[in-house]
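@channel anyone free to eyeball this complex?
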Amino acid sequence: MVLVLGGAGYIGSHAVKMLLDRGEEVIVVDNLETGHIEAVGAGVKFYNVDIRNYEALKAVFEAHAIDAVMHFSANSLVGESVKLPIKYFDNNVTGANVLLRVMSEFGVKKIIFSSTAAVYGEPNEVPITENCETKPESPYGESKLMMEKMFKWVDLAHGIKYVSLRYFNVAGADSSGTIGEAHVVETHLIPLVLEVPLGKRKAISVFGEDYPTKDGTCIRDYIHVVDLIDAHLLALEYLRAGNESDIFNLGTGEGFSVKEIIDISRKITGHPIPVEIGPRRAGDPSVLVASAEKAKRILGWEPHLSNVERVITDAWRWHKGHPEGYVNS
Ligand code: UFG
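replying in thread with the prediction:
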């Protein structure tokens, strides 16, 4: 049985669906701070529990024979984390500590968790490999790096094996159109761009066009959420096969500029999507592109859906069908 923490969130809900499709038994824990109960599949055992609540989390482990944990419960907004670092250290770091305590008490020895490209900060080289220096520029990135270090030491002491997956820019949605990205406060480029053809905003702001890139806008590596979860399923197999803890980047190795994303969105939606050029957003590195060679080599991962046309087409299907997210769905 796999315990999915944060299974009501954007990425976690895709994990739940894909685990169920594989025939895995799944239970979900989520505090619904940013998640949506509607995103959890019907019939899935759900606990409205905050992972920092030791007693409540312990009760979940008591009630089920959990073999592995997938951990998606975290706050993940770079900008917010700069303003509210304590919130990030509390939820992400304290949450991980409580979780590790419960896992060690119950002898649960396998965990796959979400890390981030934000651990690298402004990279010294591109594409970024797992060996690149980690120097986060936000409390969010720092909190994820701290989590990675906690897992390393706890593995040494208690033999809890982990796979840390450093995500680049996750986007898109399951092709069913039933689950997708629905943040109350949206900050990510693709869902914001798609709000224009939905009639929810007049134009998309481009945060800076004076970066040292081909068209002056930032370059990112966009990975389809379904490919991302495929890597989690492979990581689960990897841990079940008795392999050692490890860290992997998840990206495609290909970068797209903000203007390219807007252009492709225009083609897919048939909407002119007007642009407003604004100032740079603090803390945005100019280029973030992954080398995912290690995940390919060791996990046997191959992203199949991560071309940006497919990513935006799938995101557009979800947003068109759910312009207000899960409200009234
Ligand atoms: N952008 C705009 N206008 C917008 C929103 C975003 O121009 O309205 C630009 C940003 O400046 C950036 C690019 O679009 O250049 C992508 O921005 P996102 O906010 O979609 O994604 P980030 O690259 O900032 O964030 C991602 C992950 C984070 C992770 C971070 C690492 O979503 O979880 O990479 O830097 F921490």
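from a first look: DSSP finds ten helices and 14 strands in the chain.
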